[in-house]
Amino acid sequence: MSVMRIIRLHMCAALVAASAVAACGGASDATGVSPEKTCQQDPTQAKCVVVTPVDTTSLRTLAARSNRFIGAAAGSLFGTNPTFDATLKREFNIVTPENSMKWSSIHGVSRAVYSFDAPDALVAFAEANGMKVRGHNLAWHNQNASWVTNGTWTAATLTDVLQEHIATVVGRYKGRIAQWDVVNEAIDDSGKLRVAESVWGRVIGPSYIETAFRAARAADPDAILAYNDYSLEFPGVKQDSAFALLQRLKAAGVPIDQIGFQAHFQINADGSGVPSKQALIDVFNRFAGLGLKVAITELDIRVRTSPAASAAELAAQTNGYSTVVQACLAVPACTTIVTWGVTDAASWVPGTFPGYGDALLFDSAFNKKATYTAVKTALGG
Ligand code: G3I
Question: Would you say 206 and 251 are in contact if contact means Cβ atoms under 8 Å apart?
Answer without folding.
Answer: no
